[in-house]
Amino acid sequence: MNEIFLCTICNVTNGNCAEDCAYCTQSSHYNTNIVTYKEKSIDKIIDEARIATDSGALGFCLVTSGRGFDLKKGLKDTKLQYIAKAARALKETSMKLHLIACNGRASYEQLCFLKENGIDSYNHNLENAQSFFPKICTTHSWQERYETCENALKAGLGLCCGGIFGLGENKKQRMEFIQSLASLNPHTIPINFYMPNPGLPIKQQKMDRTEALDIIALMRESFPQSRLMIAGGREIVFGNEQKEMFEAGINAIVLGDYLTTKGSSMNDDIAMLKQYGLEIATECH
Ligand code: SF4
User: How many whole angstroms from 189 Cα to the centroid of ligand 1?
Assistant: First the structure.
Protein backbone atom coordinates (compact mmCIF):
# COMPACT_ATOMS: atom_id res chain seq x y z
CA MET A 1 0.00 0.00 0.00
CA ASN A 2 1.30 3.44 -0.92
CA GLU A 3 2.10 6.00 1.72
CA ILE A 4 1.16 9.58 0.91
CA PHE A 5 3.05 12.49 2.38
CA LEU A 6 1.03 15.62 3.18
CA CYS A 7 2.50 19.08 2.93
CA THR A 8 0.89 22.47 3.53
CA ILE A 9 1.75 25.90 2.20
CA CYS A 10 1.82 28.99 4.39
CA ASN A 11 2.21 32.01 2.13
CA VAL A 12 3.56 34.45 4.66
CA THR A 13 3.66 37.32 2.16
CA ASN A 14 1.53 37.51 -0.96
CA GLY A 15 1.64 39.31 -4.29
CA ASN A 16 3.30 42.56 -5.39
CA CYS A 17 6.21 40.73 -6.97
CA ALA A 18 8.32 42.82 -9.35
CA GLU A 19 9.25 39.80 -11.50
CA ASP A 20 7.32 39.02 -14.69
CA CYS A 21 6.91 35.20 -14.55
CA ALA A 22 4.11 34.76 -17.07
CA TYR A 23 2.48 31.86 -15.19
CA CYS A 24 2.30 33.54 -11.79
CA THR A 25 -0.66 35.48 -10.40
CA GLN A 26 1.60 37.15 -7.82
CA SER A 27 3.46 39.15 -10.43
CA SER A 28 2.63 42.87 -10.31
CA HIS A 29 2.99 42.96 -14.13
CA TYR A 30 -0.44 41.35 -14.54
CA ASN A 31 -3.91 42.19 -13.34
CA THR A 32 -4.96 38.99 -11.59
CA ASN A 33 -7.03 40.41 -8.72
CA ILE A 34 -5.39 38.50 -5.91
CA VAL A 35 -5.34 39.50 -2.25
CA THR A 36 -1.94 40.98 -1.42
CA TYR A 37 -0.37 41.37 2.02
CA LYS A 38 2.96 41.75 3.74
CA GLU A 39 4.28 39.62 6.58
CA LYS A 40 1.79 37.46 8.51
CA SER A 41 2.20 37.58 12.29
CA ILE A 42 4.20 34.75 13.85
CA ASP A 43 1.10 33.85 15.93
CA LYS A 44 -0.95 33.42 12.76
CA ILE A 45 1.77 31.24 11.22
CA ILE A 46 1.76 29.02 14.32
CA ASP A 47 -2.06 28.79 14.25
CA GLU A 48 -1.92 27.65 10.62
CA ALA A 49 0.79 25.13 11.46
CA ARG A 50 -1.47 23.67 14.18
CA ILE A 51 -4.32 23.21 11.72
CA ALA A 52 -1.89 21.53 9.30
CA THR A 53 -0.51 19.22 12.01
CA ASP A 54 -3.99 18.29 13.23
CA SER A 55 -4.87 17.27 9.66
CA GLY A 56 -1.86 14.97 9.41
CA ALA A 57 0.54 17.20 7.47
CA LEU A 58 4.24 16.59 8.07
CA GLY A 59 5.61 19.32 5.84
CA PHE A 60 4.98 23.03 6.39
CA CYS A 61 6.32 25.45 3.82
CA LEU A 62 6.94 29.14 4.56
CA VAL A 63 6.53 30.87 1.21
CA THR A 64 7.26 34.49 0.33
CA SER A 65 6.61 36.25 -2.95
CA GLY A 66 9.36 38.14 -4.71
CA ARG A 67 12.63 37.29 -6.35
CA GLY A 68 14.35 36.30 -3.15
CA PHE A 69 16.55 37.56 -0.39
CA ASP A 70 18.66 40.67 -0.87
CA LEU A 71 22.06 39.16 -1.60
CA LYS A 72 23.84 42.47 -0.99
CA LYS A 73 22.41 42.78 2.53
CA GLY A 74 23.29 39.13 3.20
CA LEU A 75 22.32 38.01 6.70
CA LYS A 76 20.94 41.49 7.45
CA ASP A 77 18.12 41.05 4.94
CA THR A 78 14.85 41.64 6.81
CA LYS A 79 12.93 38.92 4.96
CA LEU A 80 15.59 36.37 5.86
CA GLN A 81 15.45 37.40 9.52
CA TYR A 82 11.66 37.12 9.51
CA ILE A 83 11.71 33.59 8.06
CA ALA A 84 14.37 32.57 10.57
CA LYS A 85 12.25 34.00 13.40
CA ALA A 86 9.18 32.11 12.18
CA ALA A 87 11.22 28.88 11.91
CA ARG A 88 12.58 29.25 15.45
CA ALA A 89 9.08 29.90 16.81
CA LEU A 90 7.72 26.81 15.04
CA LYS A 91 10.56 24.59 16.23
CA GLU A 92 9.94 25.75 19.83
CA THR A 93 6.40 24.34 19.74
CA SER A 94 5.65 20.67 20.32
CA MET A 95 4.79 20.24 16.63
CA LYS A 96 7.26 18.03 14.83
CA LEU A 97 6.92 19.59 11.42
CA HIS A 98 9.44 19.30 8.62
CA LEU A 99 9.99 22.97 7.82
CA ILE A 100 10.50 24.06 4.26
CA ALA A 101 11.35 27.61 3.21
CA CYS A 102 10.48 28.92 -0.24
CA ASN A 103 11.84 32.40 -0.56
CA GLY A 104 13.39 32.66 -3.99
CA ARG A 105 17.01 33.42 -4.79
CA ALA A 106 19.34 32.84 -1.85
CA SER A 107 23.07 32.68 -1.26
CA TYR A 108 24.88 29.80 0.36
CA GLU A 109 25.40 31.87 3.56
CA GLN A 110 21.72 32.81 3.75
CA LEU A 111 20.68 29.19 3.33
CA CYS A 112 23.14 28.06 6.03
CA PHE A 113 21.58 30.68 8.30
CA LEU A 114 18.07 29.33 7.66
CA LYS A 115 19.29 25.81 8.41
CA GLU A 116 20.83 26.95 11.70
CA ASN A 117 17.47 28.50 12.61
CA GLY A 118 15.40 25.38 12.03
CA ILE A 119 14.61 25.16 8.32
CA ASP A 120 14.98 21.55 7.09
CA SER A 121 14.49 21.91 3.33
CA TYR A 122 14.47 24.62 0.70
CA ASN A 123 11.96 24.80 -2.13
CA HIS A 124 13.09 26.50 -5.30
CA ASN A 125 11.69 25.35 -8.63
CA LEU A 126 13.56 25.32 -11.92
CA GLU A 127 10.03 25.72 -13.33
CA ASN A 128 10.76 24.47 -16.86
CA ALA A 129 13.53 23.87 -19.38
CA GLN A 130 16.41 26.32 -19.55
CA SER A 131 15.82 26.78 -23.30
CA PHE A 132 12.14 27.65 -22.72
CA PHE A 133 12.54 29.88 -19.66
CA PRO A 134 13.18 33.19 -21.54
CA LYS A 135 9.69 32.78 -23.05
CA ILE A 136 8.06 32.80 -19.61
CA CYS A 137 10.28 35.19 -17.66
CA THR A 138 12.50 38.07 -18.68
CA THR A 139 13.40 39.61 -15.32
CA HIS A 140 15.66 36.84 -14.05
CA SER A 141 17.47 33.86 -15.50
CA TRP A 142 17.00 30.12 -15.23
CA GLN A 143 20.69 29.86 -14.32
CA GLU A 144 20.04 32.00 -11.26
CA ARG A 145 17.38 29.51 -10.17
CA TYR A 146 19.73 26.59 -10.69
CA GLU A 147 22.44 28.27 -8.60
CA THR A 148 20.10 28.73 -5.66
CA CYS A 149 19.25 25.01 -5.80
CA GLU A 150 22.96 24.20 -5.76
CA ASN A 151 23.42 26.55 -2.79
CA ALA A 152 20.65 24.75 -0.88
CA LEU A 153 22.30 21.37 -1.42
CA LYS A 154 25.69 22.75 -0.44
CA ALA A 155 24.18 24.21 2.75
CA GLY A 156 22.98 20.72 3.69
CA LEU A 157 19.29 21.47 3.25
CA GLY A 158 16.90 19.00 1.69
CA LEU A 159 16.06 20.14 -1.83
CA CYS A 160 12.47 20.42 -2.98
CA CYS A 161 12.62 21.38 -6.65
CA GLY A 162 10.24 20.88 -9.53
CA GLY A 163 8.25 22.98 -11.92
CA ILE A 164 5.17 23.67 -13.93
CA PHE A 165 3.96 21.89 -17.04
CA GLY A 166 1.57 23.10 -19.69
CA LEU A 167 3.06 26.53 -20.39
CA GLY A 168 3.57 25.83 -24.09
CA GLU A 169 6.83 23.89 -23.74
CA ASN A 170 7.32 21.01 -26.18
CA LYS A 171 8.17 17.38 -25.42
CA LYS A 172 11.87 17.89 -26.11
CA GLN A 173 11.92 20.74 -23.63
CA ARG A 174 10.20 18.54 -21.06
CA MET A 175 13.00 16.01 -21.44
CA GLU A 176 15.59 18.78 -21.12
CA PHE A 177 13.88 19.96 -17.91
CA ILE A 178 13.87 16.43 -16.49
CA GLN A 179 17.60 16.07 -17.22
CA SER A 180 18.33 19.32 -15.39
CA LEU A 181 16.27 18.19 -12.41
CA ALA A 182 18.12 14.87 -12.42
CA SER A 183 21.43 16.70 -12.09
CA LEU A 184 20.15 18.12 -8.78
CA ASN A 185 18.46 14.91 -7.62
CA PRO A 186 15.84 16.63 -5.41
CA HIS A 187 14.36 14.62 -2.55
CA THR A 188 10.96 16.10 -3.37
CA ILE A 189 9.69 17.23 -6.77
CA PRO A 190 6.58 19.40 -6.90
CA ILE A 191 4.65 18.91 -10.14
CA ASN A 192 2.35 21.77 -11.08
CA PHE A 193 0.00 22.00 -14.02
CA TYR A 194 -0.70 25.46 -15.38
CA MET A 195 -3.89 27.02 -14.11
CA PRO A 196 -5.24 29.38 -16.80
CA ASN A 197 -6.08 32.87 -15.57
CA PRO A 198 -7.49 35.61 -17.84
CA GLY A 199 -5.04 38.12 -16.37
CA LEU A 200 -1.95 36.09 -17.30
CA PRO A 201 -0.22 36.33 -20.71
CA ILE A 202 0.02 32.54 -21.15
CA LYS A 203 -3.13 31.51 -22.98
CA GLN A 204 -2.69 27.71 -22.80
CA GLN A 205 -5.78 25.74 -21.85
CA LYS A 206 -5.77 23.49 -18.79
CA MET A 207 -3.81 20.34 -19.45
CA ASP A 208 -5.55 17.27 -20.76
CA ARG A 209 -5.90 14.58 -18.10
CA THR A 210 -4.23 11.84 -20.15
CA GLU A 211 -1.26 14.04 -20.95
CA ALA A 212 -0.92 14.96 -17.26
CA LEU A 213 -0.95 11.27 -16.29
CA ASP A 214 1.74 10.57 -18.90
CA ILE A 215 3.89 13.34 -17.42
CA ILE A 216 3.49 11.91 -13.91
CA ALA A 217 4.42 8.42 -15.14
CA LEU A 218 7.46 9.81 -16.95
CA MET A 219 8.52 11.70 -13.83
CA ARG A 220 8.16 8.55 -11.71
CA GLU A 221 10.22 6.56 -14.17
CA SER A 222 12.87 9.30 -14.20
CA PHE A 223 12.91 9.76 -10.42
CA PRO A 224 12.20 6.38 -8.80
CA GLN A 225 13.48 7.52 -5.39
CA SER A 226 12.14 11.07 -5.14
CA ARG A 227 8.92 12.11 -3.50
CA LEU A 228 6.63 13.25 -6.32
CA MET A 229 4.28 15.91 -5.05
CA ILE A 230 1.26 17.04 -7.00
CA ALA A 231 0.75 20.73 -6.33
CA GLY A 232 -1.10 23.44 -8.31
CA GLY A 233 -3.55 22.28 -10.94
CA ARG A 234 -4.49 19.00 -9.23
CA GLU A 235 -8.16 19.88 -8.89
CA ILE A 236 -8.61 21.50 -12.29
CA VAL A 237 -6.91 18.66 -14.18
CA PHE A 238 -8.19 15.66 -12.21
CA GLY A 239 -11.41 16.93 -10.59
CA ASN A 240 -12.81 14.39 -8.14
CA GLU A 241 -11.24 11.42 -9.93
CA GLN A 242 -7.70 11.48 -8.64
CA LYS A 243 -6.93 7.80 -8.08
CA GLU A 244 -5.02 7.33 -11.35
CA MET A 245 -2.69 10.14 -10.38
CA PHE A 246 -1.47 8.09 -7.42
CA GLU A 247 -1.31 4.95 -9.53
CA ALA A 248 0.94 6.83 -11.98
CA GLY A 249 3.42 7.66 -9.23
CA ILE A 250 2.34 10.58 -7.06
CA ASN A 251 3.16 10.00 -3.39
CA ALA A 252 2.73 13.47 -1.90
CA ILE A 253 0.09 16.17 -2.12
CA VAL A 254 -0.27 19.78 -1.08
CA LEU A 255 -3.05 19.75 1.49
CA GLY A 256 -5.37 22.77 1.68
CA ASP A 257 -5.02 25.98 -0.27
CA TYR A 258 -2.33 26.91 -2.79
CA LEU A 259 -0.60 30.28 -2.96
CA THR A 260 -3.40 32.24 -4.55
CA THR A 261 -6.08 29.65 -5.29
CA LYS A 262 -8.32 27.57 -3.06
CA GLY A 263 -7.60 23.87 -2.81
CA SER A 264 -10.02 21.17 -1.69
CA SER A 265 -10.86 21.17 1.99
CA MET A 266 -8.32 19.26 4.07
CA ASN A 267 -11.05 16.91 5.35
CA ASP A 268 -12.21 16.09 1.83
CA ASP A 269 -8.67 15.25 0.74
CA ILE A 270 -8.09 12.99 3.74
CA ALA A 271 -11.41 11.23 3.07
CA MET A 272 -10.40 10.79 -0.59
CA LEU A 273 -7.07 9.20 0.33
CA LYS A 274 -8.81 6.79 2.70
CA GLN A 275 -11.37 5.91 0.08
CA TYR A 276 -8.53 5.05 -2.34
CA GLY A 277 -6.96 2.79 0.31
CA LEU A 278 -3.88 5.01 0.65
CA GLU A 279 -2.07 5.44 3.94
CA ILE A 280 -0.99 8.82 5.21
CA ALA A 281 2.72 9.03 6.05
CA THR A 282 3.39 9.61 9.73
CA GLU A 283 7.11 10.20 9.48
CA CYS A 284 9.17 12.43 7.24
CA HIS A 285 12.17 10.55 5.97
S1 SF4 B 1 7.07 32.91 -9.51
FE2 SF4 B 1 8.03 33.98 -7.75
S3 SF4 B 1 9.44 35.43 -8.72
FE4 SF4 B 1 8.01 34.82 -10.33
S5 SF4 B 1 6.34 36.36 -10.25
FE6 SF4 B 1 5.73 34.65 -8.92
S7 SF4 B 1 6.37 35.24 -6.86
FE8 SF4 B 1 7.50 36.54 -8.33
Answer: 18
Q: Check whether 261 has a pLDDT greater than 90.
A: no
| Helix residue ranges per DSSP H, the chain | 42-54, 78-92, 108-116, 142-154, 171-184, 209-222, 234-238, 243-248, 266-275
Residue 74 makes CB contacts below 8 A (sequence gap 6+) with: 107, 109, 110
pTM: 0.94
Residue ID of nearest Cα to ligand 1 atom 4: 21
Cβ atoms of 45 and 213 closer than 8 Å = no
- Ligand 1 mutation pick, 24, 103, 124, 126, max ligand atoms within 8 A of CB: 24
How sure is the predictor about 262, in pLDDT bands with cuts at 50, 70 and 90? Answer: low
Judged against a pLDDT cut of 60, whether residue 1 lies above it is answered with no
Burial profile 45-72: b = 16 or more Cβ within 10 angstroms, e = fewer: bbebbeebbebbbbbbbbbbbbbbbbee
pLDDT in tens, 120-148: 999 999 999 999 999 999 999 999 999 99
Which of 67, 124, 136, 202 should be mutated for ligand 1, with most atoms under 8 A from CB?
67
Give the residue, by CA position, lying nearest to ligand 1 atom 5: 27
Say if residues 193 and 232 touch (Cβ distance below 8 Å): yes
Domains in the chain (CATH in brackets) are: 3-280 (3.20.20.70)
Span 82-89, average pLDDT: 97
279 CA to centre of ligand 1 in angstroms? 34
Q: Is 191 in the pocket of ligand 1 (CB under 6 A)?
A: no
Q: Is 17 in the pocket of ligand 1 (CB under 6 A)?
A: yes
Which residues, other chains included, contact 266 with Cβ-Cβ below 8 Å and sequence gap of 6+? 51, 55, 255, 256
